[in-house]
Design brief:
Strand content: 15-25%
Strand order of the largest sheet: 4-6-7-9-8
Oligomer: single chain
CATH class of the largest domain: Alpha Beta
CATH superfamily of the largest domain: Histidine kinase-like ATPase, C-terminal domain
Number of helices: 11
Mean pLDDT: 82
Length: about 425
């Protein structure tokens, strides 16, 4: 229904016909109830449910793909361990390893969308990162004029720099694709409060936010495209020009940081993305700097219990560990792991434990191992990243985490970090 001021609203019509004793119509009566707010809430809920379902699917695909690549990466590591650069096919093997890394970056985007991507939160000045990223991007797209409108006293945020840069470059590339002949890209930052974030399809958590606004003067989008731009694998680009994961990963990364994103666009006019990050709570700052040792393989000594429900993964992992010098026991399920550890805990120095297993999960297995031996040393392994369930187990005392696919150097370093710790 259109109101006098031109605004369209949703209404429910309740009416009835009033008749006389002979059945003739006397008049009609009824009422119209404005249900616009309810309709908006329903649309918001349906959108959230759809995005959550797609996120779960995307995360599952990434996890399974990482497990698949683990078998390939492990075997490549074993081959490279026994040869040097003079081997006739050494370069081809290294090329395969680089392809695996590219595949891992792709799954990282999927995990980012699913909000299961790895990130290390730090205090960041958003203006500085935007300025540096825009400078880098501008050198490659000189036909685009980049305008900066930064608030000088911008609040800090707590976020992962690499993933913020990933957001920026995805948005910059998206804008550039919409302006093939050049145009203006305007970057604006400002401090904002949740009370100022009105007319959204979501209700923001009451807090202070830092808003980033990215505006281009490109082709713009129609309504149908706008409804799907954050869906993974959806792209309006031609064949071979995009995976459809750029804006999907942007959405996931922002949600993982507790933020919000929305977009306004009009065909022939341009597009504006509004991104909101929670302003830093200075009373609750945490910073974790992961240890990164040198990439070398140190000879190992001791016994390791390898637990994974995928035979190809457990076989290649055992072979890598044995190459390094460890004695290895194996378990293909959570039940086997608990039984094996009960029987041999005195001689097991470390357990490498898969997080996602049927029937008895890695989390449950970890708790059982702690009951048997409170000093048990456990390295978690998963096709998902460290965030989410893995983080909870690490908080309960687990000693470390390694994400699949990993090579022999990464495995050696992680195992040594734990076994060498007091």
């Amino acid at each position: 229904m259109r109101q006098y001021n031109g605004t369209i609203i949703w209404v429910e019509n309740y009416s009835r016909t009033v008749r006389d004793a002979e059945g003739g119509i006397l008049y009609y009566e009824g009422s119209l109830i404005d249900v616009t707010k309810r309709k908006k809430l329903e649309a918001q809920w349906q959108h959230a449910q759809r995005m959550e379902s797609i996120g779960t699917l995307a995360g599952g695909i990434a996890h399974d793909f990482n497990n698949l690549m683990m078998g390939i990466q492990g075997n490549i590591s074993l081959l490279l361990f026994d040869i040097d650069s003079s081997f006739p096919h050494y370069k081809k093997l290294k090329n395969i390893e680089e392809s695996i890394k590219s595949g891992a970056r792709l799954t990282s985007q999927l995990l980012g969308y699913a909000r299961k991507g790895k990130y290390e939160a730090r205090r960041l000045v958003l203006n500085q990162i935007i300025d540096e990223s825009a400078e880098t991007f501008g050198r490659t797209r000189k036909e685009i004029t980049i305008n900066r409108r930064f608030e000088s006293d911008l609040s800090e945020i707590e976020a992962d720099r690499t993933q913020i840069e990933q957001i920026l470059f995805n948005l910059f590339i998206n804008a550039a694709d919409a302006m093939p002949g050049g145009g203006d890209l305007t970057l604006k930052t400002t401090n904002i409060n949740s009370q100022d974030m009105t007319d959204k399809q979501y209700k923001p958590v009451a807090a202070n936010y830092v808003m980033l606004q990215v505006t281009d003067t490109g082709e713009g989008m129609d309504t149908k495209t706008l409804e799907r731009i954050f869906d993974p694998f959806f792209t309006t680009k031609g064949l071979g020009r995009g995976t459809g994961l750029g804006l999907a990963s942007v959405y996931g990364i922002i949600k993982a940081h507790g933020g919000y994103i929305d977009v306004d666009s009009e065909q022939g006019v341009g597009t504006t993305f509004h991104i909101y990050f929670p302003a830093i709570d200075k009373s609750n700052i945490h910073s974790h700097i992961p240890h990164k040792g040198p990439n070398r393989i140190k000879p190992g000594k001791g016994t390791i219990l390898m637990v994974d429900d995928e035979e190809i993964i457990i076989d290649v992992s055992i072979e890598m560990l044995e190459k390094i010098g460890y004695r290895v026991l194996k378990a293909l399920s959570g039940k086997e792991a608990i039984s094996e550890y009960q029987a041999s805990s005195a001689k097991i120095d470390l357990v490498i434990l898969d997080l996602i297993m049927p029937k008895i999960s890695g989390s449950e297995v970890y708790d059982k191992l702690k009951e048997i031996n409170p000093q048990v040393k456990v390295l978690l392994s998963s096709g998902y990243s460290v965030d989410g369930q893995a983080t909870e187990i690490l908080k309960r005392g687990c000693n470390g985490f390694i994400q699949k696919p990993f090579n022999m150097e990464e495995l050696s370093r992680k195992v040594n970090e734990i076994l060498d710790s007091k």
